[in-house]
């Protein structure tokens, strides 16, 4: 089993690439069902990523339904590829969503939300280890974003696959997860 970020990134991109639409839907629903069991529902602001369908990311539609059913404030982001910063907006009925050049669905405009308001972040990833380290696409957007959140913000990774034992090349600046949820189980770090 590979253990470097580069090898793991490639390995899990390949595993995701062969998932069918129905497998993605089934696994995404199983993840949402596991989230229901978690002690995270007494908060107000929940940050959710909108999936890059072309990268076969987790379909967060089920989580969005869960959050709106619980009357939570839903926050989504827009990425600036020059600064590697994310700006956050409240998702409302009036929010217009448009894909950027990397096929990331993003809000066109809306009501800005400070990172200091965000209580729970659902984090996209390619792989994670038993210590709560994660591997994303390597651009550092989420590390920067998570580092700017308040210390008590709950960071929950979402993964189609189970953990690896260890990621070798973890950096100081890599922000660890509090939990990771897969279709099979909930990991707590």
Automatic annotation (TrEMBL):
Entry annotated with the keyword Nucleotide-binding: yes
Binding site for substrate: 52, 57
Classification via SUPFAM superfamilies: NagB/RpiA/CoA transferase-like (SSF100950)
CC cofactor: Mg(2+)
E.C. designation(s): 6.3.3.2
The reaction(s) this protein catalyses: (6S)-5-formyl-5,6,7,8-tetrahydrofolate + ATP = (6R)-5,10-methenyltetrahydrofolate + ADP + phosphate
Coiled coil residues, start to end: none
GO terms of molecular function: 5-formyltetrahydrofolate cyclo-ligase activity; ATP binding; metal ion binding
GO biological process: folic acid-containing compound biosynthetic process; tetrahydrofolate interconversion
UniProt keyword annotation of Disulfide bond present: no
Keyword terms: ATP-binding, Ligase, Magnesium, Metal-binding, Nucleotide-binding
Residues that hold ATP according to the record: 5-9, 134-142
Family in the record: Belongs to the 5-formyltetrahydrofolate cyclo-ligase family.
Protein name in the entry: 5-formyltetrahydrofolate cyclo-ligase
């Amino acid at each position: 089993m590979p253990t470097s970020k580069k090898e793991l990134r490639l390995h899990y991109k390949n595993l995701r690439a062969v998932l069918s639409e129905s497998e993605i839907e089934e696994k995404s629903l199983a993840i949402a069902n596991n989230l229901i069991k978690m002690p995270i529902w007494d908060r107000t602001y929940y940050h959710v990523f909108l999936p890059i369908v072309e990268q076969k990311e987790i379909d967060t539609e089920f989580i969005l339904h869960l959050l709106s059913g619980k009357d939570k404030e839903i926050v989504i982001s827009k990425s600036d590829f020059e600064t590697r910063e994310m700006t956050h907006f409240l998702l409302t009925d009036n929010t217009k969503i448009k894909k950027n050049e990397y096929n990331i669905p993003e809000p066109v405009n809306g009501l800005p939300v400070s990172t200091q308001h965000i209580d729970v972040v659902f984090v996209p990833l390619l792989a994670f280890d038993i210590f709560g380290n994660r591997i994303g696409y390597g651009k550092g957007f989420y590390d920067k974003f998570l580092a700017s959140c308040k210390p008590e913000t709950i960071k929950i990774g979402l993964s189609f696959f189970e953990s690896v034992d260890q990621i070798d090349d973890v950096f100081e600046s890599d922000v660890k997860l509090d939990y990771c949820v897969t279709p099979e189980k909930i990991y707590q770090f």
